[in-house]
Each structure stands twice: as C-alpha cells, then as structure tokens.
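Key idea: predict the complex, not the pieces.
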Amino acid sequence: MQATQPQLNMNFIGYEAVTGQGDSFQSFAPARNEALTDEFANVSAEQANQAVDKAAAAFSAYAKLHPAQRADFLDAIAAEIEALGDDLIERAVLESGLPTGRISGERGRTMGQLRMFATLLREGSWVDARINPALPDRQPLPRPDLRRMLVPLGPVVVFGASNFPLAFSVAGGDTASALAAGCPVIFKAHPSHPGTSSLVGQAIVEAAQKTGMPDGVFSLLHADNDVAQGLVAHPAVRAVGFTGSRRGGLALLRVAQERPEPIPVYAEMSAVNPVVIMPGAIQENAVKVAEGLAASVVLGVGQFCTNPGLVFLLDSPQTDSFLETVAVKIRASAPATMLNAGICQSYYKGVQQIRVLPGIHVLAEGETEASHDRTEGRATVLTTTAPLFLSNPDLSHEIFGPSSLVVVCQTEAELADCVQSLEGQLTATLFATPDELHQSSVDWIELLQTKAGRVLFGGYPTGVEVCEAMTHGGPFPATTDSRTTSVGTGAILRFVRPVTYQSFPDALLPLALQNANPLGIWRNVDGKMTK
Amino acid sequence: MQATQPQLNMNFIGYEAVTGQGDSFQSFAPARNEALTDEFANVSAEQANQAVDKAAAAFSAYAKLHPAQRADFLDAIAAEIEALGDDLIERAVLESGLPTGRISGERGRTMGQLRMFATLLREGSWVDARINPALPDRQPLPRPDLRRMLVPLGPVVVFGASNFPLAFSVAGGDTASALAAGCPVIFKAHPSHPGTSSLVGQAIVEAAQKTGMPDGVFSLLHADNDVAQGLVAHPAVRAVGFTGSRRGGLALLRVAQERPEPIPVYAEMSAVNPVVIMPGAIQENAVKVAEGLAASVVLGVGQFCTNPGLVFLLDSPQTDSFLETVAVKIRASAPATMLNAGICQSYYKGVQQIRVLPGIHVLAEGETEASHDRTEGRATVLTTTAPLFLSNPDLSHEIFGPSSLVVVCQTEAELADCVQSLEGQLTATLFATPDELHQSSVDWIELLQTKAGRVLFGGYPTGVEVCEAMTHGGPFPATTDSRTTSVGTGAILRFVRPVTYQSFPDALLPLALQNANPLGIWRNVDGKMTK
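Result:
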C-alpha cells in the first residue's frame, strides 16, 4: 500500500487515512485568539475499535522483529519528522502559542528521544536477560535450563499532553518507548494541537511503511472523551500512557481498573515540585538562587509539570532581601500566551482563589498587564506562613501556570511538617550547604526522597534531561505508578513483562537468550554479568 | 530489649510479643481431622495499626542500612529457622497435613531463598544504578549530573499462603524480597498454620534483634479479614504481597485501589497451567510424557499453583494408548491429606460440578477410596472435546487439587482456539517436536507466551526453581501484575522505585552512586556497563 498524501486533518487507522465519523471541531490559535479554518473530525467508536483490532493483529509480527528493525523504524520516524521541516514548526507554534525557538528545541528533543531508543535497541541489553543453565546432576533434583527476558505487553493507548505538542505528544516519549518495547501504539491526539498531531502521525505512518512495519503498528485518532475511554476499555489494549490533568488521569485509571482484566495506566498528573531553601544556601549565593527561582517559575509561562509551585524558606536575616530579589525578577517578567484559553482561565482562577485568603500576601506579579485577547498568563508569587499553609490543604495543589507560593517557616520542625504534609511529587529540590545538613536534626534528603522521583541539590527542576539516569515520575498523585519513569531509557520498562523459557531447544529461543549470544548483549548467567 | 521466650501462640508487634485482643481460634490438624488445643487470638484493629506505625517508624533507619547489614539479617533469619529444628518441622506437618519430607524440603527452600537475597544484596548490582555525569560545556545547555537507583517503597503487608506453610508464608519469598529491598514487613499469618507462623515469626524477631535491626522491621499478626483489609488501607502501607484465592486477592486489590493513595498489590491468585501436547511428542516418548503428566497432576495432592489443570491433546492414532497410560498411573495414585477441610470440600465440589456435565468423561480416578476423616483428596482426570470446552467457560477455571481435564482436539485450529480462549496463566507447557512446530501454521510458542509468565518446552510446571531466571507470575488473573515475579531474585523489584539524584555532592549520594563505586557494583554510565 502506498503512503497517502499529507492531509492536515486526517485520522490514521493503521496505514489508512480516514475522515472521522464523529463530531468535527476546529483547531485554535491561542496567540491570535481565533479558531483556524481547518476542520477535524473525531473518529467513531467503531473506527477506534478498528484501530485497536489492527494493532492487535500487528502485535505478533511487530514483537517478533529483530531489534535492529524496530530501531530502524524509530530512526525513520525521526527522519520523517525532520523532513516535515518548517511546516511542522509553524503549525505547532500556531496551535500552542509557544515561541518558535521553544518548539524548535522540542522537535530536537523529540527526534533525540526516538534515536535514543533506537540506540538502546541496537545495544540490546535492556531486555534484562537472565540465564540459569541446566544442572542435570544436581542433588536431590536436577535443575532445568531456565532463561528469562522482557517481552512486550501488547497494544498501548497513548494520550497526548497539551503542554508539549511534540515531545509528550504523537511521537513523544510514551510513543517512542512503547514502540521500542515492541508494542503497537494507538495515539489519541490532544485537541489543542490537532494539526500538529496529524502531521506527526502522518510522519510515523510514512516511516512505518518505508521500514516495512506491519499495518496497525501505529494509529492516530482524534476522539472525544467517550471514545477515548472506550479505547482504554478495549480488551486487546494492554497498557495506557497519559500526561495531563489529575482528573483526566484518574478517570482513565478507573476505566482500566474496572475492566474484567485490569491493565496498567501510566498517568503523569500533577505536581507542585517543592523547593526547600535553607539559610546557608542563601547566605552563600542569595542573588543566584533568587533569580534562578524566578526564572524557573516563569519558564514556558509556567506550563511545565516540573514547575516549582511551592517554595519553603527557613526564615533568616536574609529572607527579606532574598524575596525582594525574587520580586524584582517577577515584576520584570513579561506576560506570555498560554497553551489554550481553558488553561489560561484555570490559571487565573486558581491564583485568585488563593490570593484572596487571609494570611496570603502578594509578593510580586508581572507589572505589564496581560492581554486577554492573546490568553496571556502573568506571573504571580505569593507568600504565607507555615501554620497557614498547614491549615489549608488547597494551598498545596497545583496551579498550572507561572505562579508560586513561598512558605516562610520559623523552625526546621515547621518546615519538616510542611514537607511531610505534601502528596507525591515529580521533583523535590533542596538548597542547603553540606554543613547545615550535617547539623540538622532532620534528614532532608531522605524526607524529600520519600516525596519525589527526582531530588535536586540546588538547581531548578524545570529542565528534564533525556538520559539513562532520569526519573520523571513519582509517588501518587504525581503519577499513578511511582515505580516508573516516562522520560529516559527507563520509560521502556513500563511496556514489558518478564517471560521465562524452560528447557527450550536453543534454536527455538529468542535471540537474546540463545547460547551463542548472537545479539552480543550483557546477560546475567547464574548471577554473573557476562557478554 | 531482650527477645521474648518462644511462645507458640503469640503475635509480634515489632519486638513485642502480644496476645491478640480479637477473637480467638484453634489450630487444626487435617491428617487427624481434629482441632489442636493451642489457642490463638487475632489482633484488634488498634493492634494492627500499632504494627504499621512501628513499621513506618522503622522504615527510615532500615532503608538506610548498608546492604551488607540487611544481608546479615536475612542470613540470621535462615539460621534461626534452622535452629528451630524438628519443632518447626513437626508443627508444620501437623498443621498442613503435608508429609515430613516435603516440609523438610520446603524449609530448605525457605532458607535458600533468604540466603539468595542476602547474596544478591552483597553483590549489590540489583539496584540498577545509572549515572550520567555532568556536561558543563554542552551546547546549547549544560547537562547536570544525574544519578539514579532503586530505593525501597516503604512498609509492605504480606499475606501467607495455605499451601506452602514455610516457603510462601512468614519467612517466604514475599517477606524475604521485601526485607531485602529495604521494606519493613507486616505479616498476616494464614489461619491454616498459626503455630508454624508464630514459630517462624519468633525466629525473624530473634534474628532482627541479634543483628540490630530497628524495632518494627517485622511484625507477625493473626488477624480476621476486616483487620487484614484495614492493614491494606492503612496510609503508611506502600505495597501488598498475597498468594491465595482469586476472591481473596481481588478483595485486597479493590481495597488498595480505593485508597486515597492507591498502592500496588502483588497477588498470585489462580491458574490452570495449560499443557499442549502435539502428536510428534507422543510418538517420540508416549510413556514418559503420560507418566510425567499423571505424576505432576497428583504431586502434593495437586495443591500447587502450577498444577497442570488443563491438557490440550491434538488427536492422533496414539491418543487412546497415551490416555490409558495416564489412566493407569492415576488409578494407582493413593489419596492423601489435603491442607484443610475447606480446601478438600472445595476440591470435591469443583470436580463434581464438572464431571456431571454432558460430554465430560471420567478417564480415571484413584482406585482407593479417600478417607474423609483425614480430609483426603483423590485424583481425578476427566476428558472432553474442544467444542464442549469452548462452549463452557467454567471448564477453564481452577479446581485446586489433584484433578485435570484433558481436551482432545481434532485440528490445530481447534486447539489454538482453546488456548486463545484462556485467561492469563502462571505457566504454559508445550510438548512438540521442533519439526512439527516448523510445519505448523500456528506459532505455538508465541501463543503460549502471550498467556503465561513461564513457557516450558516439555517437562512439567510443578517445580518452581528459585533462581535469577525464574518468572513466577503471569497475565491477569494468574496475578494482578504480569510485570512481576514472586519467586527468584526478580521478586525484589516489586518493592522498589527509581529515584534520581541531580547535582548532588558526592558525599551526600547513596553509596551505590558515589564516584568511587565503594560497593563495587555494575553501573550503567552513559549507557555503558562498568564496574
């Protein structure tokens, strides 16, 4: 079958470009505050089921491919995305309101992730091969030959995030890691950037065809909530990836748990990413810490899941000047267009609900008025005390956007109580000197570690490096599964399970487990790593 | 605090031996069909909460121990169990009705598991350390130093199984792997062997005290269902291990999912462990295959989670003589005492419900009448056809005990339909020659692999080796989480999550991640394995 010609508003059920049979909708340009003329149409439940059926049919052939073939596919996706050139950049800028430089960087990150997984597949050791050869003479019983590796779960449904129209969307980390694992992907596009989604979906379909992947290895669907939940409920679906709101993630989790056969949902939902600042760190470097904090709060109009929404400051003689440095930076920050009108409204509503409370003070806001025509977000930093923070659980909930609440604590005990009261987080950051950690009665690193998947010593959480050592995950409700990461090579481990092969003839074993180690991977043989 | 004197009927809330404040009950000797005189008392909800509070308080200190100290603790548990000598063997035989040789072997397996995890901890590489050193000069942005390893989840509640009073009970694989991971354990004893449980609980407490573990690292509780579910609901509990019935496992899963903060439940629940036998395998070795099958069905009075409850036979001229060989062995098998009266009744009820159905034939049963006084189970093997099997889903449900249903299929397609219709399994076994696999239009290995955590080529599933390469797990409802194993070193991975440390001074990092690699473990540095 030939690749279809690029069409901005298509769904892809496997290789087939189809017009959705459900409701139609228009894309929206937040920076212009206007709907675009392109019409998109959601798929019907029947069309969604066709995509899953195709994925289920493709699974067997796809899972059996040589890892290098899957790697070629991932590389080809990166190349096809690159080949979209400025069309993709312009469309993503138009639909997200994010600046060109940011989108361009995000495209690089997206291609980098795909190529990282291709490299991982070619190296091959990620399958965690373990071999215990037969011991026919063991007493009192012989040991059979046992070999174990990780195998793909099956078709995966992925939901795109609004805030990263490329890196956490159609060809983002969830898709890349699921495809790398050997799982076909049915992608549910985010309605904030449907054109961007269709372009990237088309690129994946082209790459799949060019590299000879089975039809159904990837589908791109525009879909309403009911149809989307139907995807999660489909018996052939084996796992779900999601990045978005807590309400959205929990709704999918409920659907997945209520299936006759429950499946894992990897939902990244919400976090306030606490930053704990001790006096020693301020004494050492007040200006740098303060300016860095302000910059992190407003980065990307605060639309990062790792945005520092809560700062805990242990009071000291430097507190006032530190906060004033933050305030100066915040006042100087220009308002900027947010991803969509809904997010912008929620942001102002969230800030407003907090700022009117007794005991909450406005430390600073951006001095320039925001344009509501361009759905712009204006930075706001508030302050309060520990007793007030501890008395109102609402103060620890995420407000998605460029705001942060600084809690000034009078004692370490008060500060520890504040941190202990928090729910699970993606990140937790500590500014302190080794000396004051040594003298403290609180084990701050350990306390923060119980709350988050990534602990930073200094620095700011808003950069999420794509690498082997990244954990982008954390205890509930930051994610639904603290045992996982959605960024970095570890993300592939969400879409696999171990299978043991007992007493197999060598030729019938998967390559990764054959005696000659034809893939040349690291393997655990009777507890020893060998290659 | 000194260790308390051994008392058969105690609960242990950390180091404290306490009498339960709930209902009391007696232990039962199935082989004598009589209650024993010892009185046990369940803990109250308040006492159960005290155990969790102690575990939560112990977690921080326990998780921070040098891995070698946790290894010493595990070795000490094995030594204390050994020191219980014949008292333990006798009590376990009395309460389980299992023969002395079997219990003795199971004790060896239990100590072996504990020592295996001690070895794993001393070697240390299981923490999957990954390091991406800082790249301060990288363009366009520097990379911070990122280091990641697995850390323990927190307190774990473990439920003992009835069918392995030692190896899947108080000091069994779930307890050993959770303690190895760095998680305190609150153990809920199985009421079928309360005296055995108290003895082993006492041994763990002794070992903990002798090796200087924090009070609360382990508790042993006798508890009713309400109190047990309360343990799962307790906010400080972070994971649950369970081996038992589907109803029991699903009840705990529901409690865990309905918590404000859901937690993972690792429940091993039910399996029929299909065995697929192709004509070529029978032609090669009919007698050995048939006798092995019969032996596997009756092993341990069929009370293994890996008991082969379903056999799919592709019809051939050898079918009748093959089945007759099975029948001869089954008829010659002696009835034997089952674990408790409830299990024995359920077994006969389950067999009876099936054998009266039209189209079900009794191939053979043990010729000796079973003694109902000794709650003995008598082996039964039934046969049926593929159409009948496919028309009645009840035929694929587990009957716990020494029975098996042989489904004689007329075509490979029929056989494939039967296998495809099955739920998830712990094991799936294939008897075939490489030649007939090569000629078949069905990829049998792949089909079986989608259904089970362990696939056997020949052999029988009833032996579960404790080693690196074992997967004792499988797709739902064999377990609640197909991504895990409850046997072998991989079991430790159920009780950990990754944490990334960003830009940490070397001295503040965990030992596993420090530059000098003081633990001498294998680590992934920028994608390369190094030591």
